[in-house]
Amino acid sequence: MTWNSRNPATLRFSRRESDEIGTAIASGSVHFKVTRSKTTKLLLWVIEGAIGIAIFLIIWQVVAEMIYAMKGVSFPYPYETIVRAGALLGGQQLYDYTIYDHTLASLTRWAIGYILAVALGLVMGVAIGVSRPFRNLSMTSVTVIQLIPGLAWIPIALLIFGLGETATVFIIFMTVLPTIIISTASAIQSAPPIYVKAARIMGMSRFSTFFKVLIPSSSLQILTGLRVGLANGWRVLIAAEMIVGVAIGLGFSLIQSRWSLDFVAAFVSIMIICVIGLFIEKVLFNYIERRLMSRLGINQGG
Amino acid sequence: MLQFARISKAFVNRDKGTGVIALKDIDLRVEENEFLCLVGPSGCGKSTLLNLAAGFDFPSQGKVMLDGMEVKGPNTRIGMVFQEASLFPWLSVIDNVQFGLKVQGVAKEERKRRAREMLELVDLSKFELSRPSDLSGGMKQKVAIARTLVMDPAILLMDEPFGALDEQARKHLDVELLGIWQRRKKTVVFVTHNIEEAIFLGTRVVLMSTSPGRIFREWNVTIDRPRDMLGKEVAQLRKDISNSLQEVLTGCGCKRVEILKPIVPRIEPSLEDGGI
Fold it and tell me: Cα-flanking dihedrals φ and ψ of residue B223, to 5°?
């Protein structure tokens, strides 16, 4: 329990709950029913979210006003950005493509680089996790690769693949790979040995124990690594697209808008990048994690 | 019949360049249908001994023999119940219990039937579809026992199985375990640091000394069951074992006398009270 997590039992009660508690105390029962209200919870969530967005927009507006006042440059306002976003989402073209094409191009690169990195990363991570010689041999390289910032791969990517698609994918791949390897290896190493012992004493072979016991018992931690890798990949993708000379993609449209002084379009690109990141992180991975936890029989919040 | 034939076990730390002799010249025969309790101070190698018997580790010298065959790795003739929660949290209670049977390739209907039978034995039939996370610590250990018994092992190794439970739950499970042992005619090797528990359960109590772990003394417990834990015979035996444990502790220079304090005054309360 962290210092700011309040015990639900001591939360301030609504009037209806207080009434129900009063009735329960008066009746002398030990267990009693509390009316649950799903709508209140959802409403609260929506209101809180809306207020959060409003605060963000206000800060943006203030910053834009200040920059205009001080430097005389037109910093895109929230309103015009949203209007432009609407137009672009409505099918307006941006550098020969719709915003959907740009998004799709980015997502495709990202997916290819990420999937390749996950495939190799899981295999290597597992190998490092189970084999001490392999760990000793390869950990230096993995650590070195991890220490190289994503964008530092650009010259190397250009050298190997030249300008274009493959170079971008390569940069994503190299950024994601070490994260997956390291987190997978540590997940395997920190898996409770008791499960392996229990499986072995019940006659399971080493081979089966590995797949049916060791992997499930470390899968949640492996997933955390996949999640971090995904976010890293997304960030470096945008940066790579800005530099590596692809003619389509969110990063490309971002940097192109900057060259043509169409800052509002640049802001729209940033907005879309944020929304996609937010969706993957908060919706997709939260969902996968919850499913995995319930499959693994881990009680949430327990 | 399980036999430890002049077992010694050394652990080596290569990085530090140090080694330690954990067990030395252990000679011990566990007879059929025996309930052997291993007691001793922590670090005396009780768990190491069980690990050797289970085939998780191998002796540096000597042999572990099961029915005349050397133990060369985990095998289903030997079952083990661990102290910590060892049920697979991703499987339901019944899937945990039939896990070993599935590994053995027992047909689906057959293993379901046997798993249910075991759950009935430990009185948890109602929970067959629950996940381990929904069970209390005591219930989890009962499932762990069912999971081990369903394999019908010749020897049941138990490494402080109820050590993490509270006193009430522990006593309750001791009684249940005893019932299972009597009905199922099993051979049990039970590690505990609780002398009272050892006397309550065991047909024989073996006290181990520490640094290095050796067999210090053993007692055949012939007190009639159900054993009267407040009776004179138990009190006498408890005093005897406690004194020997005291000897072990002073012998190894371990200042663990405080462990004994709650035990010693309780040995014969009537006499002490009378003296005051």
Answer: -60, 135
What is the number of domains present in chain B? Answer: 1
Q: Beta A93-94 vs A97-98: how paired, if at all? A: antiparallel
C-alpha to C-alpha distance for A289 and A284, rounded to whole angstroms: 9
Residue A213 in contact with residue A193, Cβ under 8 Å? no
List the single best residue of B51, B57, B88 to mutate versus A (max A Cβ within 10 A): B88
Domain boundaries, chain A: 1-36, 38-75, 93-296
What are the tokens at B190? 């039970």
pTM beyond cutoff 0.80: no
Residue owning tokens 């099993």: B186
Is the ipTM beyond the 0.95 threshold?
A: no
DSSP B276: -
Q: Which of B103, B130, B136, B189 to mutate to test the interface with A (most CBs of A within 10 A)?
A: B103
CB atoms within 10 A of CB B13: 9
Residues of A in Cβ contact (< 8 Å) with B56:
197, 200-201
Question: In degrees rounded to 5, what are phi and psi of residue A111?
Answer: -60, -45
Token reading at A42: 């959802």
B243 touches chain A (CB under 8 A): no
| Residues of the domain holding B182 | 2-77+153-275
Q: Is residue B104 part of a domain?
A: no
Chain B residue nearest residue A195, CA to CA: B86
* pLDDT mean by block of 10 residues, chain B; 276 residues: 89 86 89 91 84 91 89 88 89 92 89 89 86 88 89 90 85 86 88 91 90 86 85 88 86 54 43 40
CATH class of domain segment(s) A93-296:
mainly alpha
Interchain CB distance below 8 Å, B79 and A213: no
DSSP code per residue over A88-111: HHTT-EETTEEHHHHHHHHHHHHH
Nearest CB to B74: which of A201, A208, A302? Answer: A201
Chain A CB contacts of B74 below 8 Å: 200-201, 203
